[in-house]
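Task card 7
Instruction: Convert sequence to structure tokens.
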Amino acid sequence: MEIIDFYKFVEHNPLFRQMAVDDVLFTAYDCPLEGSPVDYSTEKNYFCYIFVGGGRWKTPTEEYTLKAGDAAFLKKGVHRVFKILNGDFCALLIFMPDEFISSVLKNETNLILDKYLEEETDSVIPLTLNESLLAYFSSLMGYFSQTSKPSKSLLKLKFKELIVNIATSGDNPLATKCFKEIAITGKKSLKLVMEENFIFNLKLKDFAHLSNRSLASFNRDFVKLYGTTPGKWLKSKRLNYAKYLLETTDLNINEITVESGFENTSHFIRAFKEHFSFAPLRFKKEQLSKV
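Output:
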């Protein structure tokens, strides 16, 4: 499946109302979700607050349905999105680089940065919207109805307010954990990068970029962590995920090829047979015969 660079698509699209300051991009995304599913990549983390329509975000382990009035924090990387409602999909999007999140937390004296939850977080983190966050998103929507744009200094304060609000309220511990990890380590967990994005047809340089590493550093750290090369790990991980889909879903072979990150169906069938000694369809029949 083709991966669309969502950030660049939004950044350079004159149809979307937007404002920017210090590498943070704020936009009102008013556009139907074209096709279903679509793989969107983004080089920056982003907040998404939906005010019309809805969608379904799929990760290797979970599916998240967001409708009007819902919000989520989405880590930089790739997200598979399905449209779930007819009509338009409209949302407020705030793209933030790791560096901005880190700088805000390091300047917040009320936060203890050397302690955070050990629980791993997914690439999509739904947000609990308390009264403060609901008021916050409502106030942001008002900026697009004004005849003049707010000053950059005011916008910067508003973006900082969002990070501090989430990190100090106690209502969103997983998002807070993610923010703190960004601020403390400076590097995204290599394990999380791989587990969150292995189903997408990314190049090794893309995985390296997502983990804030050079390609050489990425390869070195990967072998140290997994004891094998990234290419071998990805092939095995995708094949085992495809096996899981064959065992637990009614997806056809073409759909499983896409879902598990292979370039084409013939490549997937050949690799699956070499690894499991059965072609995918035969493997499926064998599993059904055991039921």
